Amino acid sequence: MGNTATGKTIERKRRSIAKTISWRAVGTLDTILISWIVVGNIHFAVTIGGVELFTKMALYFFHERAWNKCNYGREKEVPIEYEI
């Protein structure tokens, strides 16, 4: 969603939540695989992955929302006044 009059865009919380869940799915599978390789026990690897799934989702969500409040690296789109 964006405000076309000002050129400003905002990111809704539901988008941040969707990004959080999709990223954590990938990250958790990575953690489980690495844990399994290092420890050699799939049960222990899944336990590690299950714990970090919830802690890192919360951390990512709040990190994402904090960055959403920051304008660093954003540029406003300048509307074209006329075209020939």
Describe this structure in words.
By secondary structure, the protein is mainly alpha-helical. It is 65% helix and 5% strand. The protein contains two helices and two strands, in the order ββαα. A two-stranded antiparallel sheet has the order 1-2. Helix 1 (13-39) packs antiparallel against helix 2 (42-69). The protein starts with a strand and ends in a 15-residue tail after the last helix. The model has no long low-confidence stretch (mean pLDDT 83).
Number of DSSP helices?
2
pLDDT average, as an integer? Answer: 83
Question: What is the gyration radius calculated from CA atoms?
Answer: 19 Å
SS content category = mainly alpha
The major β-sheet equals: 2 strands, antiparallel
Which regions contain 5 or more consecutive residues with pLDDT less than 50? Answer: none
Helix share, percent: 55-70%
Q: Report how far the terminal alpha carbons are from each other.
A: 30 Å
How much of the polypeptide forms β-strand, as a percent range? under 5%
Number of DSSP E strands: 2
Q: What is the overall silhouette?
A: elongated
Order of helices and strands: EEHH
Strand order of the largest sheet: 1-2
Condensed summary:
Helix content is 65%, strand content 5%. It has two helices and two strands, in the order ββαα. The mean pLDDT is 83.
Please tag this protein with its features.
mainly alpha; two-stranded antiparallel ribbon; 2 strands; 84 residues; single chain
